[in-house]
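Hi Y.,

Following your request, here is the sequence exactly as I used it, all 760 residues.
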Amino acid sequence: MMKNFSLLVALLLLLPASLAIGQDNPFGDVVDEPKKAPADATDAAPEEPEDAETEGEDITDPDDPVLATIREQNPNTARELIRAINTLLDYGAPTEARKYLAKLIALKPSAGELIELHEEFGSAMFMKMRRDKRLGEDGATFANAVMDAAHKWASDPKRIDPLIEELKSDDRDVIRAAIIDLQKAGEGAVQPLLDVLADKDRAAEHRNVRLALAGVGTAAADPLIATLETDDDALKAHVIRALGMIGAPHSTVFLLRDFASKKSDASVRDAAKIALSDLTGSTPSAREVENYLLKETERFLSGIPPRKPDHEDMIAMHVWNPARQRSEKVKMSARDASLYVAAHTSSDLYALYPDNYRYRRLYLIANLESDKLRNGLDQPLPSDPGSARERVRKVGVAALEDVLTHAMKEVRAAAAIGAAEVLGDLQSQEALRGEHGAPTPLVNALHHPDRRLRLAAADAIMRIDPSEGFPGSSRVPETLAFLAGASGLRRALVAHPNASEAQSLVGSLLELGFEAESALFGHEVFKKATNSPDWEVLLISDAISNGGSHETVQFLRRDPRTALIPVGLMVRSEDLQQAKLWARTMPLTEAFPRPYELDSIQFQIRRLLMGAKRSLVPVEERTQQAKLALHHLVQIGENRKKFSFYEFDCAAEVEPALYDAELAGNAARILGLIGSPEAQRALVDMASQNLLPLKQRQAAASAFATAVEKRGVLLNSEEVKLQYDRYNQSERLNVETQNLLGSILDTVESVTKPNTEAPE
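Below is the corresponding structure, written out as C-alpha cells. Let me know if you'd prefer a different format.
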C-alpha cells in the first residue's frame, strides 16, 4: 500500500483514461492560473475512433475452405449463426457474414432467446458486432436488441427485489449467489439497494447491501457519487463506505469535502477517511485537499470532460434530484458535463474556504454557468430549492458584480447571464450606482456582444426599478428597442458591388428559407446590419467599395449588435489563401470562394451557422426576447414621469414587430405612447393592410387613437388624404375592415389641433 498521497500519481497513470477523472497527481502544487479553455470541449479531448473493423480484404471465393466448411455445417439456430458470423468476420469475409446475419434476423428471436444469447456469448461479443461497420446498420440493430433485452431482464424489479431479500440469508453461499446476480443488473440494482440503506428499520441488512453495491463495481460509482448530495447523513456514510470498497479512483475528489469539513457528521467524516485510505493508501492533509480541489476545479472549468464522450460528444451523467431524493441519469454535452463536475468541486472548495474570494469566484462562475447551460440559454435560471440561483443570492451585490466582470472578460456568457439574472433578483439600487460616475458591471453588460446577456442585464435593471438616472442609463431603452424589433424571420444580408450577382445570391438564400436583402457598399452593409436583430448570416464580397470588406468586417465586430453574426467573405480564387489567414483573426468569420451553385451556398451557410454554436439565437428565441423587451418598453412608455431619465423614441426600431402576431399588441401600444409622426404613420399604414389579421389591425387603430389623444394628428396632408382614399376604396371589403378604416378617420376628425408636433 502507498504511504502518502503524493505517490497516488503512480497508480493513476496506469489507469485507463475512461476510468479516472483525476489522472494527474491529485495532491500536487496549487495551480495559480487556470489553463486556457479550449475553443470547444472536443478540442481538449477528441473522441478516439471506435475499434471497428476497417475495410479490408473481403473473401468471397465459394471454393474457399473456411467458407465451404461453414456452408456444409449449415448453421440454422441463433447460436450457430452467431458463431458463424463471428468466425467469418475474424476470417475477413464480411459479405458472407452479412448473409448469415440476414438469416439470423429472419429468425426473429424472442426476448427470452436474446437474453440467452447474451448469457452465452457475453457483452463483448455483441459490442464488437455493434461496432463492426462491415455489418452495416443491421449488425448494430441486432446487437443493441440483445443488450437491451439483457439489461431490461437484469434490472427488472421483479428479479432484483427477490435477490435483495436473499441478502438477509444466514447462508453465505446464498448471499454470494445473490450478489453475483445483482452484479449482472449493473446500474439497475443500485437504486433498489440504496433504498434499503436509506431505511433505518432494515439496519440488519445494511452490511450485505454495501457488499452488493461493491459487487456491482464501477457501474455503481456514478449513481453513488450523485447520492452524496443527500441530507441523510446515515445514508451518506453508507454510500461513502461503498465507494471506498468499489475503489473507483474518480470518486476521490467527491469525498474530500466530507472528510475535511468540520461541519461534517462524525460518522460521515470517519467513513470518508476510511474510503480515502482504501482508495489511495493514505489520507490527505488540509493543504493537499485544497490543492487538489482547486486543480480539479480549474481543469474542468477549462473544458476537460470527466470521461470520454460518445460519437455525438455526449456524456451520461448522474445528477441528484432533491425532490425525489435519488440520482437520475442525464445525457449532456461533454462541455456541460465538465461544467457540472466543476460546479461540484468548486462548491466543495468554497464551502471549505468561504473567505477566499478567488474560490468564491470559481464557485459562482462554475455553478451559474452549469445551471444556465443545463436548463437552456433561452430559459431563466432554475429557482427551486437547492438551485444555484437560490444559493448565489446569498453572496450579495459586490460578489455578483465581481463574477459578472470576470465572466464577461473570460468570455463565459452563460455565467454572466446568470449573474445578471440574480442581480435583478436582489433588486438593489447599489447595482446601478457606479463609482466616480462610471457605469457598474451590470450596466456595462448592456454593451456586451452576446444579445442574451444584453437582454438579461436590461431585464435585471428594469426589475431593480431605478428611482433616478444612473451612469449609462441611456443604454437600457437602446438595448430594449433593438431587441424589440424582431420580425419573426430568418434574415441574411448579401454585400456585392454587382447588383445582378447580389440578386442571384439573394434568390439562392430565399430558396434556403432566408428573407434576404442586398447591399452594394460597405457602409450600407453596416447600416443595415445594425438596424435589425434578425440577421443570422452576412455574406460579403471582397470587391465591395466604400469601406471595403476588411474594414466593414472590423466595424461589424466592434459593434455589440453585430459582433456575433457569422460573416462569410466571398473571395476571388487568387486571393483566397491570404483571405483565409486574415479571416482567422476575426471571430465567426470565414473566407471561401464565391459560391455559384445552390448546394455550395447551402454548404457554406451551414458551416457558418455551425461555427456560431450557442451564440446563434434562433427565430423562436428572438421572438421571446422581443416579447420581454416590448413589455419593458410599455412600462417605460406608461410611466414617463417616473422614467423621465430614459429616452423614449424608438418608433423605427419597434415598427417591424407590428407585423408579428405575437408581438403586435405591445408594439402598437408603444407606438401609440410615443405618438410621433413616424409612429402615427406606422400605425395607420399597418391598420390599413387588409390582408393582415383583423385583431392586429384593430390594435394599431386603437394605438393611433391613443397617439392622437396625446399629441394631436401629426400626419401630413398627403397622409391624411391617403387614409380617405383607403376608406373610399373599401366599399367592396368586409364590414369589419370598413368600420376599422372609418374609425381612423373618426380619430383624425375628432381633434382640431394643428398639424404640427406638440409637446407632451
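Residues 65-154 form one domain.

Thanks again,
Q.
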